[in-house]
Amino acid sequence: MRIYRLAREHRQAERHSAGADVDAALATQATALNTSREAVDLRVKALEAYAAKVRTIDKLIDQQRQLEEAERRTDAYIDLVAATTADTLTTEQVRTAEAEAAALAGPLADAVRIARDAAALALPTPDRAGS
Question: Of 6, 20, 38, 119, most Cβ neighbours within 10 A?
C-alpha cells in the first residue's frame, strides 16, 4: 500500500536529514502522512460500523424468518390441541400466542428496514468517498 511505502521512505529520510530545511520539508510530508492515516482510520471505522449493522440486520432477518415459520405451524398446533382436548382455554392460549407472533412480525419487519437504511448510510459511497 502506498501509505506504508511513503512512511517507510519518510522514516529513512528523517534518519539521514541534512539540516533544518530538510526537516521542514519532512514535517510537511509527515503532516500529509498523518492526514492520510486519519482518513484511512475513518474509513475503517465506517466499515466496522457497517459490519455491526449488517450483523444486526442478519439477526433481525433470522428472527423474522423464525416468526414466519412459527406462524405457519400455528394451525398444526391448534389442530393438535383440538384433537387431544376439548379444553377451550388451551386452544385460546395457542391463538393468543399466534396473535402475539403476528403482532411482533410487523414491528420486526420495520426494524429490519430501518437497520438496512442505517447500514446504507454508514458505508461511504463512491460519490461521498472524497468528502
Answer: 119
As to burial, measured by CB atoms within 10 angstroms (0-12 exposed, 13-18 middle, 19+ buried), residue 24 is exposed
Q: Model confidence over 7-49: pLDDT tens digits? A: 999 999 988 888 998 989 999 999 999 999 999 999 999 999 9
Backbone angles phi, psi at 129, to 5 degrees: -65, -30
Neighbours of 60 (CB within 10 A): 19
Give me the amino acid identity at 7.
Answer: A
Helix (H) or strand (E) holding 82: helix 20-84
